[in-house]
Each structure stands twice: as structure tokens, then as C-alpha cells.
Amino acid sequence: MDELIDEDATGLAERLRAREFTQAELVEIFVRRIEVMNPALNFMTNTAFDRARSKAETIPLDAPFAGVPILMKDMIDIGGLPRTDGSRFMLKNVPERSVQYVEAVEAAGLNILGQTNVPEMASFIITNNDVFGATRNPWNPDYSVFSSSGGSAVAVSAGVVPMAHGTDGAGSNRLPPSATGIFGMKPSRRRMRSGEADGRHDVAKTNQMLSRTVRDSALAFSLTESFSGDPFPPVGYIAGPSDRRLKVGLIVDDGKLITTDPEISEAQRKVALLMQNLGHEVEETPWPVDANEMADAYAKFFGGKVGALKTAVEAASETPLMESGLLTRFLASNIEASAAVSAEDIAEGRAFLDRLEPVFAEVFRRYDVLLAPVAPVVAPPLFEHTPDELYTDELSRYVAARLKFTSPINFAGCPAMSVPLSWSADLGLPIGSHFIAAAGHDGLLYELAYELEEARPWRDIWAPFSLKYVPV
């Protein structure tokens, strides 16, 4: 068995500094883990083994992570490595330069070993695409892990790496962690170093790690956040819980768009009781966003983003979009449907999304944090829908329903986290708890995460299809 399986990235760095093993030896251990587990779970797109081997022993041991290998989501520019976004159209895309966030990851002493699977251009709720295939849940391979940081979540849950990178544009660093029993954090908007090639910040998407332990995520956060002070002063490294007691708003589902699974609602009520037992004040409160209006606004917003992609694909293939073969049927037909969205509709959708920031700001005048489900369902069956299907309004609502509690937070700019505190008796899958704080209050969430990790430890709870039980 892998004797290092129980170590998190912080612990591995400490052992590297103690010279219990070398960076090169650790790279080979992680390579072997990938070779053993990827054929069964399919969480990788590209490997960068030789790159990692060449960097081993060149990373200073006094760097915070001292050369610990990491996997990056295949949706961020890493100089010299392919970035496919899970799409046939992007297979030849090799960025020349790393974005600021990746530069900070490597400066922290993390050694990039490869990239993880995503749905094509993050366009669907199940991690599956026509190029690399479907990623399986290590708790039950017949189920998905949602999306879009699905490959990264599986790699961590299966014990391949203690920490992996994710991006979150509508829930991607919370949904897969919820379905795999790990910790996931979405920072405040503009909190982290830029993950975009032009150095700007996306209106919805942020970068941060998925991990088995809170301290790994907190340390990575402190090393990759922006130090500009615009719009928030740096948080720094949060090392443990706070004595501060919080006022918590427990979200009661309104049944709009989809009714939350009773098992999930009950799990959150039990977590609310845990919070009360820890001395926090909890009261029920309604979800402040109309899910039907959110679904409509998000569809219009998406319609305003894809015109350039349609043009690029048709120029590259010299054929109409649906005949190009460069995009999945789902994404191509979604783009075609979006062409019917008018400029007025797009503006209307964006106006609704822009109003979410003051809506949540008002909520956080009454509460320190909200406690809600991550998703209204535990996890989708792996092939409940596939990228070969044509886009329909019904399928659009299927996706929007599963983003009901996560996507509004991105447009509100708030930080949020998925904490693995419950498991489904029916499916045997994890159920995350979704904690949301006011914009800029990322540190408060980390303090709470440490407290919950201590109160209900999850680090030693392993998926059946993980390296805890599979010999390497």
C-alpha cells in the first residue's frame, strides 16, 4: 500500500524538508498513483510527467509546498502545456505563457504533474466530453461528480493527490467536492491572482484548490491571493478556528425549478443543529433568489458570450457549426439556440445578474453566513445525460436546477465553500454543506471550516474506489 496516502500537501512538504524522500521520488509515487487509478476513474486529460521530473530537485525546499506534485484543471493557461477545455476544437491550443495564478502556484513550490478532465468548455453539469470521456465517482463509479472541476475532485477523493486546482464559474469548486467528500472553496470575486490571459478578472469565475484538509486550501489560498488590496485587503494564512460565534441563516427550499431531495434538506438541518451545539445562532430564512428567473437570466447571459466561438469554429472548419465536428452536439446546438437571443434579452439577463450583488449584501446585513444545500440532488447518474444530446429548453432547465444554490453566488461575488459533513444513506455518496459569506469575508469561512473539520473530522473517511484500499 502507499505509505504516504494519509499525508496532505502540507505534511508532505514537511517531510520533504526533513529529507525523508526526495522531490523526484515523490513525483514517481504520484505518477504511479495516476497510472493505477486513471484507467478506472478517468480524471485526467493531459499528463506533464517529464515536465514535473525536470522540475523536481530544482524547487527550493524552503518554498511553502517544497515540490509537492499537483494537478491543474484543464481550463487555465500553463505555459508550454496544452489547454483543451475538454474540446476537440482546442486540442492544438498550447499557451505560450502562464497566467498570474499559475505563476503563483509554482512560486508556492507546487510541481504541476498534469491536467484534469472537464465537460467541454464547462458547458454541462456532468463531467463528460467527446474527447476524454466521462469521469467516474470513486464513491460509486455509476455516478458523476457534477462539474466542471470534476476531474480534480476525483483525483483528490481517490487519493491520487492531496490537493488539485479548480475554477468556479457557477459552482464548479463546490458541486464536485460535495459529491466526492472533500473540501472545496470559491473565493470572493477579484480576490485571487488573475487566471485570465489578459490579467483581468472574470465576472463569475474564480480559481482555488480542492483538498482533503482545510489547512492545505488555506495555505494555497494565502499564496495565490492578490496582494493589490483591490478590492479587498489580503487575508493571509488562516491557521485555525475563531472564537467568534456566528449568526447563521439556514436556507429553506422554496421548491422553485426543482424540489431539493429530502435527504439533502435533512442533512443540512442536522448540520444546523451541529452549528447550534457549537454555540452559533441559527434561524431559518428563505433563499433570496428566484430560481426560475435565475435560470432565464443565466441562459441569456450565456447567449451573449458564444458568438465569437461560433465564428471561430466555422472559420477553422470552413463548415457550418453543427457540421464542423469540432464541438459536441450539445454545445454546438446550445450555441445555435443562443443565436436567437437578442441584444435586449442579453442586456436584461445581465441586469438581473448584476442585481444579485446588492441582494446578497442585504442578506449579509442580517447574517454572518448562510447554510444551504450545495445542490438539490446528491449526484447525477453518470450517463443520465451526455454531450451527444441536442440542446433543449428542458435540458437547459435540468442544468440550471442543479446550479440553483451555487450559480447566484458567483454573480454576487461572494465566497462560498462545500464542507463534507454528511453522507447519503440511499446512495452511499457524500453530501456537502454550502456555507456562504459576504464578499471579502473569505477568512471567516476558513475559520469556520477549521471548526467544522475539528468537530466532525472527514480526513480519514475514504471512498471505496480510492488508493486507501487499492494497492499501488
Automatic annotation (TrEMBL):
<feature type="domain" description="Amidase">
    <location>
        <begin position="25"/>
        <end position="445"/>
    </location>
</feature>
<dbReference type="InterPro" id="IPR036928">
    <property type="entry name" value="AS_sf"/>
</dbReference>
<dbReference type="InterPro" id="IPR023631">
    <property type="entry name" value="Amidase_dom"/>
</dbReference>
<comment type="similarity">
    <text>Belongs to the amidase family.</text>
</comment>
<dbReference type="Pfam" id="PF01425">
    <property type="entry name" value="Amidase"/>
</dbReference>
<dbReference type="InterPro" id="IPR000120">
    <property type="entry name" value="Amidase"/>
</dbReference>
<protein>
    <submittedName>
        <fullName>Amidase</fullName>
    </submittedName>
</protein>
